[in-house]
Design brief:
Shape of chain A: globular
Strand content of chain B: 15-25%
Number of domains of chain B: 3
CATH architecture of the largest domain in chain A: 3-Layer(aba) Sandwich
Structural class of chain B: alpha+beta
Oligomer: heterodimer
Number of domains of chain A: 3
Distance between the termini of chain A: 53 Å
Largest interface: A-B, 31 and 34 residues
Largest sheet of chain B: 5 strands, antiparallel
CATH architecture of the largest domain in chain B: 4-Layer Sandwich
CATH class of the largest domain in chain B: Alpha Beta
Radius of gyration of chain A: 21 Å
Strand content of chain A: 5-15%
Helix content of chain B: 25-40%
Mean pLDDT of chain A: 86
CATH topology of the largest domain in chain A: Rossmann fold
Number of strands of chain B: 20
Distance between the termini of chain B: 79 Å
CATH superfamily of the largest domain in chain A: Cobalamin-binding domain
């Protein structure tokens, strides 16, 4: 009898070897051994993918290796669906599952779609990086009972607001999921979503208990305060000036270099995006989370912790007209670890 | 009961005199008539001493507070707020409802300045005397009440408008229509809508939870003839028990006991849908008070609500018709599923321009049924429906032509002629397309030979397994432009792990905050993907291009990658 942890380890090894057939075999063996398909999807595939993400953040894997692993896992999800077909939809209702615009990690949403299908829902999976207009068209046309939006990156929160508003205009409740909305889901309310689920199992349980929402624990008024005016304006400024700010920040980080490396430009772009999202939901914790993430990852040629202080100063100087942005930058600066040596 | 302004109002049962020690009345038990300056006041004036005993009151005050007695404590006047105000000095202003034999009167009071002396009792204002001025504001109150009620009705309609206008989905609109009606308009509501050949009903009841919904065929309406007549605008149906029975037949549930009153409200003619709302225990009929004014206002509210419901239902039905057309078109033009072919791997990405409702001018096709899988990637000029129609024509022509002619270099001129002929028979303006088409022949040694033909399209790129990138030097003229057009041909050999990438110019012309994406960036983005499956390559490039766009609009983006599988044991 192989326990689920061993299966996960074996699966991860197949991902590391880019061995699609082997990875499919691990999943199918588990199904044949009587492991619940939902457990194969969540405790083997999803758990292994989290490890893949950690390896990428630790600089052990390249982004293309991560893409290959994700591609294999997508194929495995399809294989699981073929090998252990979900029961026909049980009239529970219809749910549309979509990733936030700009969120390219479609696998968690795909897994959610599979899990909900197994809980009797009729599921439409719209894929990765769904533009708000496309989601709105789908909701108007198909009229799902619930829209589930998924994202891992808090920097996509302003996009989440557009998507939530598009759904709420049609009266369709929106369940948010994934770490983008904060470890406790606190930003789900800030973007106007009707609830937040930490993972696919929780989402299935919440929808089973109450298909209509709102699902917020304290049944206060639904998130009508999505992005106050200051937040929207300053976030808009950051978005409009993104390219310019990245150049400024790169010059501040490495004054002696010429053009910034792609990795540095990517990281600084993320920094501006996270800053914009933090301004949008007015929560310094969101930006602090990014700053500490920079300290924890090891992307070669990417942004280094020691370069943060001059970057934050340069941005604060360039954005003097945006008081909330400047406040967040100053607070983040105050929280930086003291330079060693 | 609370007054409108939150201040505690009168207490009809018992003035709280018990909390005050009853006191002996002064020596004069019967107050003599009070001549003097106060008599002329329109406002009621009450003068009380510190202990709460009424020292004087003018006729206007007596009229407003019939139980008021000069010489007795103020509590006997049965106006609790005033009694409290007298004892405690505040509130200095208040509103109260006073019970009269003829009905309720609204009284507004304020503490006022002392006027003195006030003969004959007392002869002079004494230290600590307080003057209270009372006024009958019953009419004002009635006006305020009706204003507030009108505001409430307007707010309900505004809310109904907000809730209905954005839905654009017939079932969801139907649910909302009945959900809004309960409890504001009635204890229960059933909506029946006929659109084309479908009948949709939705039902909501007080405390019944989520509205129920169901569908039937319009052909079955003959089973509910009276309801059908109402839908067709040929009858009222209110109070007709047969309509009630038919509603119960339709929804499978009798919404209320038989004696409940019902109203049938046909939705004004929209030209798109036929609909009616059936209310159980409607508020209009139930209202007993002030029947004329209130009932008329409620009647107005009801008809406005029904009209809004009709508009929303018609908009949703029209939108569904339109979007159904769009959906059928989208599905016929959607990016095809890639085949599984022995010895050749495929990958693709397709991202239509945002404003074209996922119907784009870029297209690709792969057919893997023969020994030489054939492929096509192209781009027709223009956007939206016109582009989609042309791309459909190109695809269908290609599908037919390749059955008769397998050499790519021969198919392309035939396709050119076919497009020109199709345009000529319809007096259309010439419509151009650019494309790369070809086929792939896998060999036993794991290599793949590609034959390519191109017209007006960016040159394909080859990503070797070792990360080297080469452009295939091939060019040609636009397809569908002129009959004598010349097209380019090329052959490309793919070793194990080599990938050939076809892409539309939407990739090169993607423009973010700065430059176009361009060929150099595309070539630079490829090497890290060496050896990755072709689907991963395409998804990665799509992501790179969209990141480059940085939220800006873009033209259609299409990519097709063809790969010779790398042999066993080679690195990913």
């Amino acid at each position: 009898m192989t326990d689920i942890g061993a299966r996960r380890t074996a699966y991860l090894e197949r991902l590391a070897a880019a061995d699609e057939a082997g990875a499919v075999a691990v999943a199918v063996d588990a199904l044949d051994a009587g492991v619940d398909p939902e457990s194969v999807l969540l405790d083997v595939v999803a758990a292994a993918q989290r490890e893949v993400g950690d390896r990428w953040a630790a600089g052990e894997w390249t982004v293309v290796q991560e893409h290959v692993a994700t591609h294999i896992s997508e194929r495995v999800v399809a294989a699981v669906a073929r090998h252990a077909p979900a029961p026909r939809p049980g009239g529970t209702g219809t749910v549309a599952v979509a990733c936030l615009d700009g969120e390219w990690h479609g696998l968690p949403a795909r897994l959610l779609a599979e899990v909900l299908t197994r809980h009797g829902w009729s599921v439409e999976f719209l894929g990765a990086s769904v533009p708000a207009a496309q989601l709105a068209t789908h909701v108007h046309r198909v009229g799902p009972d619930v829209v589930a939006i998924s994202s891992s990156l808090p920097s996509r929160l302003p996009a989440a607001r557009r998507m939530v508003e598009a759904c709420r205009a049609t009266g369709t409740p929106v369940l948010a999921g994934g770490p983008a909305f904060g470890a406790d889901g606190r930003w789900a309310r800030a973007v106007g979503a009707d609830g937040w689920a930490p993972d696919a199992r929780a989402a299935a349980a919440m929808l089973a208990a109450d298909p209509d929402g709102p699902w917020h624990a304290d049944a206060a008024e639904g998130g009508a305060t999505a992005g106050d005016r200051t937040g929207r304006e300053e976030q808009g400024v950051l978005h409009a000036r993104r390219a310019e700010l990245v150049r400024l920040a790169a010059a501040a980080a490495r004054p002696d270099d010429g053009d910034p490396t792609d990795e540095l430009a990517d990281d600084l772009g993320h920094l501006v995006d996270f800053l914009a999202a933090a301004v949008f939901v007015d929560d310094p914790a969101l930006f602090d989370g990014f700053v500490s993430w920079v300290g924890s990852v090891a992307i070669p040629a990417g942004l280094r912790v020691a370069e943060l202080a001059p970057v934050l100063d340069a941005l604060a100087a360039a954005l003097a007209d945006s008081p909330r942005t400047v406040r967040l930058l100053r607070e983040a600066h105050g929280g930086l670890p003291a330079p060693v040596g | 009961m609370e007054s409108r302004f939150g201040a505690p109002a009168h207490d009809v049962s018992e003035a709280p005199a018990a909390t005050i020690t009853p006191r002996a009345t002064p020596a004069v038990p019967e107050a003599p008539p009070v001549p003097g300056p106060l008599d002329g006041f329109e406002e009621g004036v009450v003068i009380c001493d510190r202990a709460g005993v009424v020292r004087a009151a003018n006729p206007a005050a007596q009229e407003l507070l019939p139980h008021l007695r000069v010489g007795e404590i103020i509590d006997v006047a049965r106006c609790e707020v005033l009694a409290r105000a007298v004892r405690e000095g505040e509130p200095e202003g208040f509103e109260a409802v006073v019970e009269h034999a003829t009905g309720e009167r609204h009284v507004r009071g304020r503490r006022g300045t002392a006027i003195g002396p006030v003969p004959p009792l007392p002869p002079a204002t004494r230290e600590g005397d307080r003057y209270w001025y009372l006024r009958d504001v019953s009419d004002e109150q009635a006006r305020t009440d009706s204003l507030l009620a009108a505001q409430e009705r307007a707010a309900f309609l505004a809310e109904a408008g907000r809730a209905l206008h954005g839905v654009l989905h017939l079932d969801r609109t139907a649910r909302r229509v009945v959900a809004l009606a309960v409890p504001r308009l009635a204890a229960g509501a059933v909506l029946v809508v006929r659109h084309d050949d479908t009948v949709t009903w939705a039902a909501a009841e007080l405390g019944g939870g989520r509205p129920r919904i169901g569908h039937g065929a319009a052909a079955d309406l003959h089973r509910v003839p009276h309801l059908a007549a109402v839908l067709a605008g040929e009858g009222d149906g209110s109070g007709d028990p047969r309509v009630d029975d038919e509603i119960a037949t339709l929804t499978g549930r009798r919404s209320a006991p038989g004696e409940a009153s019902r109203r049938v409200c046909p939705v004004p003619i929209t030209g798109v849908v036929e609909a009616c709302v059936v209310l159980t225990d409607p508020r209009v009929a139930a209202d007993e008070v002030d029947r004329d004014v209130l009932a008329a206002a409620e009647e107005d509210l009801l008809s406005s609500y029904v009209a809004r419901a009709g508009t929303a239902l018609a908009a949703a039905a029209l939108h569904e018709e339109q979007s159904h057309l769009g959906t059928v078109l989208q599905e016929s033009l959607a990016a095809p599923r890639l085949p599984e072919t022995p010895g050749v791997l495929w990958g693709a990405a397709y991202r239509p321009a945002r404003e074209t409702m996922r119907v784009g001018g870029d297209f690709y096709e792969v057919v893997g049924t023969s020994e030489r899988p054939a492929f096509l990637l192209g781009d027709v000029c223009g956007k939206g429906i016109e582009a989609a129609v042309l791309s459909g024509r190109v695809r269908q022509s290609w599908h037919a032509l390749r059955l008769l002619e397998d050499r790519p270099g021969h198919i392309l001129p035939l396709l050119n002629t076919a497009l020109l002929d199709a345009v000529a028979t319809r007096d259309e303006d010439p419509r151009f397309a650019t494309m790369v088409l070809g086929d792939a022949r896998p060999a036993d040694d794991g290599t793949v030979e590609l034959r390519l033909a191109t017209g007006g399209h960016p040159p394909p790129l080859v990503l070797r397994a070792d990360g080297e990138v080469e452009a295939v030097p091939v060019a040609g003229m636009l397809v569908g432009g002129i009959r004598e057009a010349r097209f380019g041909e090329a052959e490309v050999g793919l070793g194990p792990g080599d990938t050939c990438l076809l892409y539309s110019d939407g990739v090169l012309e993607a423009r973010g905050s700065g430059d176009f994406f361009g060929e150099e960036r595309l070539a630079a983005a490829l090497p890290p993907c060496a050896g990755a499956p072709p689907q991963v390559l395409c998804e990665h490039l799509e992501q790179v291009v969209v990141s480059w766009l940085d939220g800006h609009d873009h033209d259609d983006v299409a990519m097709l990658a063809i790969q010779a599988p790398h042999g066993p044991g080679s690195p990913a």
